[in-house]
Amino acid sequence: MPLSGFSLFVIVVLVLALAIVIAGVKTVPQGYQFTVERFRRYTRTLSPGLNLIVPFVDTIGNRVNVMEQVINVPTQEVITKDNATVSVDGIAFFQVFDAARASYEVAQLDKAILALTMTNIRTVMGSMDLDQLLSHRDAINERLLHVVDAAAAPWGVKVTRIEIRDIVPPTDLVNAMARQMKAEREKRAAILEAEGQRQSEILRAEGQKQAHILEAEGRREAALRDAEARERLAEAEAKATTLLSQSVNEGSPAALNYYIAEKYVAAFQALAQAPNQKVVLLPYEATALLSSLGGISELARAAFEQAPAPKRPGPTGPARSTPGTTPSPFAQPGPDA
Fold first, then answer.
1. What is the Cα–Cα distance from 141 to 145, expressed in whole angstroms?
2. Does the predicted TM-score (pTM) go above 0.85?
3. Most exposed among 94, 102, 192, 306, judged by the fewest C-beta atoms under 10 Å?
4. Ramachandran sector of residue 131 (left: φ over 0; alpha: ψ -120 to 50; beta: rest)
5. What gap in Å lies between CA 196 and CA 314, rounded to an integer?
6. 308 backbone dihedrals φ, ψ, rounded to 5°
7. Virtual CA dihedral for 263, 269, 275, 277, nearest 10 degrees?
8. 93 close to 84: Cβ distance less than 8 angstroms
9. Beta 25-28 vs 58-65: how paired, if at all?
């Protein structure tokens, strides 16, 4: 059935309205921002979600990814401060925080950040020695991040991280470094061994010193004890001599006979125990030792009976001997002897 003019007009109006709605309603996905241009001029930025624009007047300029992105830095040759050539590569992370500036302040943002990173890698690493280059990777990353982030800030970009992945020196340089490391470790081992021997000698000397000190203190203590013992022995002998003198003065010469007999026996015993003495010759006066025993027996008898010592004959009478014994040569003779 042919359409009337009015029906055709309504259909055209509906299609035009649908086209206007489609042109004026824009949906932005999460993680992106769209720039809006009016007559090819930037006007505003659309955030994620449902947005309305003026149809047929406003258009979408750039669809900018505002999520954090990564760029691989290809391998490049870097000459260090000490003229060593190394191969370096890395990665860089960045995030767009201003879609308008990232769209209209720089062309080909990824290539610009990559070129900026590679240039600063050569600049930063070229100002360092090889040893610093290999041992201060964190410092290199920090310096690169500071420089590149400051340069990319006008583009509405935040450089969040730059990491150096590999630093590869030449093969001959690696071998030389290995030999140097081996020599350094051998040097440390020799130093530690010498230090250990030195410490051992010091401890041994300290031990010997302490032993000598203790030995000297022991000898000193022994000498003091020996001197004290001799002093006490001398005091005992002096006291014995005093008692002996008092006993003789009181008219009891038996104590004197006992003292002389004791000394005589001790001297005879020392003579018999001499290591170089094979034959012992008894002197004629040895028989006097038997007579001294009489005096000893008298002292013992007097001690047990608790009786006063027997009176000895005066100087006018002859010396009497105990029956059955030989006269003692140590007895005091009378004037008629």
1. 6
2. no
3. 306
4. alpha
5. 88
6. -65, 150
7. 100
8. no
9. unpaired
